[in-house]
Sequence to fold (186 residues):
Amino acid sequence: MEILYLKNMVCGRCVAVVKQEFEKLQIQINRIELGKIELFEELNVEKKTILTENLQKWGFELLENKQAQWIEQVKKAILTWLQLPDKEKQPNASDFISKNVGRDYSFLSNLFSLVEGLTVEKYIILQKIEKAKELLVYNELTLSEIAIILNYSSVQHLSAQFKKITGFTVSEFKKLQPPRQAIDKI
Fold:
């Protein structure tokens, strides 16, 4: 059995594309989830090279280095935590990340800051603001509802962070609708 870690695998469509690439090379997958693929057997060098090239065409990267794998697992844990319903967010983000990655949070936080150039907390804020932009574009929810969904203490707190990160007030953003950023590029 071999476990592979992939960078930029952030959604269900990513899983489908990755699965398709493995099937093209007739590589049997035991289990697949965001950022992680468990194979029944180890890949030979030739297949791994071809797989790496094929995945790069889609914007994915095989992570060979353990530190890069931990960073990707932290990002995956954050995305999962942010998607939990509010009542299930009882563990704070740091506890959730530590539990899901299986490492001490202070170690992961320091590594994340060193490698990514921003703190885990800043990364969470960037992800929350990107989600807020998505929800604002849909124009189906009030700002109060968005604040609750994203676990903000108040609409004012969300509005202040939104302005600080985007440079726009929520009203300006709704009028202008500047382009959004892909979550794997944050």
About this structure: The first helix runs from residue 12 to 24. The longest strand covers residues 2-7. The chain has a mean pLDDT of 89. The chain has three domains: 2-64, 67-117, 122-185.
